[in-house]
Specification:
CATH superfamily of the largest domain: Periplasmic binding protein-like II
Helix content: 25-40%
Number of strands: 11
Order of helices and strands: EHEEHEHEEHEHEHEHEEHH
CATH topology of the largest domain: D-Maltodextrin-Binding Protein, domain 2
Bound molecules: adenosine-5'-triphosphate, magnesium ion
Shape: elongated
Largest sheet: 6 strands, mixed
Length: 214
């Protein structure tokens, strides 16, 4: 039995067509079912429904041989024990720095000001500002980052942006792209060695499906 861990919502919805292209159907819909282990039309493959940020952990420890995780989540996790062989090209967005419309970000950076930055992505933000030589105090939040600058909690945020609608609705503007983000297929390193006969064909099918859906 091979297990694939993934999260509900965007990642699940965009992984389904890739599974379908590989001839794999799910027997339950996680949006309506409360099951956390889903059977598929392939008796040797099941799906595990976990929180997005938990996917790398399940795969790292081998509780799941495979996973689908956003690059944002993988950067925070660090990638220990994982291979990341395939960019699935789904759940695409950009990791951005955003500030209130009136805030002079370039000026603040030029003057060497110390910035307060709210984010869920502590590792990525820390590395980004360190590489730029910008001094920051990072404030860890778990969601709704857009609120922080509006109520004086932070000068800036680091968050994922796709359409930009949420930024606009909260009178924020993106001032810097940190990196593009998309979801990756991840594999437990030990499992790939021990169960290569079962895992490699799935990797090949995913590779083909991702290429045709691109
Ligand atoms: P949770 O909802 O469990 O707190 P989450 O908010 O990270 O976690 P989702 O919103 O489902 O979960 O996001 C899952 C993944 O989808 C993220 O890790 C990221 O890779 C991608 N993602 C997040 N926001 C966007 C976005 N605005 N546009 C496109 N992809 C996104
Ligand atoms: Mg979310």
């Amino acid at each position: 039995m091979i297990t694939l861990a993934l999260s509900k919502g965007r990642i699940f919805d965009e992984t389904l067509p890739l599974l379908a292209a590989a001839g794999i159907e799910t027997l339950d819909n996680p949006d309506t079912s409360r099951k956390l282990i889903l059977s598929t039309s392939r008796r040797d493959l099941r799906l595990l429904i976990v929180r997005a940020a938990d996917v790398p952990t399940y795969v790292q420890y081998g509780a799941s041989e495979l996973g689908v995780a956003g690059k944002d989540v993988l950067l925070e996790h660090g990638g220990e024990g994982l291979y990341q062989p395939l960019d699935l090209g789904i759940a695409s967005c950009r990791m951005m720095v955003a500030v209130p419309e009136g805030f002079d970000y370039a000026g603040a950076v030029r003057q060497g000001a110390r910035l307060r930055v709210a984010t869920k992505y502590m590792q990525t933000a820390r590395e980004h500002f360190a590489a730029k030589g910008v001094h920051v105090d990072l404030i860890r939040l778990y969601g709704s980052m857009e609120l922080a600058p509006l109520v004086g909690l932070a000068d800036a945020i680091v968050d994922l942006v796709s359409s930009g609608d949420t930024l606009r609705a909260n009178r924020l503007r993106a001032v810097e792209e940190i990196r593009p983000i998309s979801a990756r297929l991840i594999v437990n390193q030990a499992a790939l060695k021990l169960k290569r006969d079962a895992i490699q064909p799935l990797l090949d099918q995913f590779t083909k499906a991702a290429a045709t859906h691109a």
